[in-house]
Amino acid sequence: MKNYANKWILQRITAVILIPLTFWFVYQCVLLSNYDYQETKAFFLSKFNSSLFFILVIAMLYHAKLGCETIVEDYVTSDKLKKVTILFISALAYLFMILTTLSIIFMINL
Amino acid sequence: MSLNRPLSPHLSIYKKVLPAVFSIFHRFTGIGMSIGALLLSIWIILIALGPNYFSIFQSISSYVIFKVFLFFWTMAIFYHLFNGIRYLIWSYGKMMELDVVYKSAYIVLALSILSTLFVWLSV
Lengths: 110, 123
Prior knowledge:
heterodimer, A: mainly alpha, elongated, B: mainly alpha, 3 helical TM bundles of succinate and fumarate reductases, extended
């Protein structure tokens, strides 16, 4: 449990990245809510859209990972449970970062 | 060693003052949106897998309860966003006078509600 300063800074860097991207994401969601499969897929064929979506999801998952870890560190008393929970959160975050990256690369290449 | 030591953010024993409630909701919405981030990730994976898998999402999204869930998700996004900006300003040691802390809290609440309504009225 070291590098708390780095975690604190990374939490804020990802937050700043997410501010403009969230507004863009919500706006796109309003449009995407009326799309069928082909139109949704066409959205991701655009390099601009898929790049922004990639940055959004990675920053979001990392920000979520740091935030959830902080909450676990604050409220879980048992050292063992704390370690296991944080390991689970990290594994989940990294797994979905990898799956999202692969999905986006796969969609651009098709 | 740490088993019997008190934890810092005691939720149940202090009087619920407004800034504390805002902090608690920041964490609640954060946990909720962490699950949301995973769902967003699953959504992208389903699109990549093809139309047969994407139809799983389409059948779920046709339920009214999905729209209700989405409405509260929108509110959580805006609340966490605006309150997060408030915390970013605090990180620079600015706007930390007690009256400004309360005023900015009400501004965050108003902006969250207005933005959510704006989005849902334009859908």
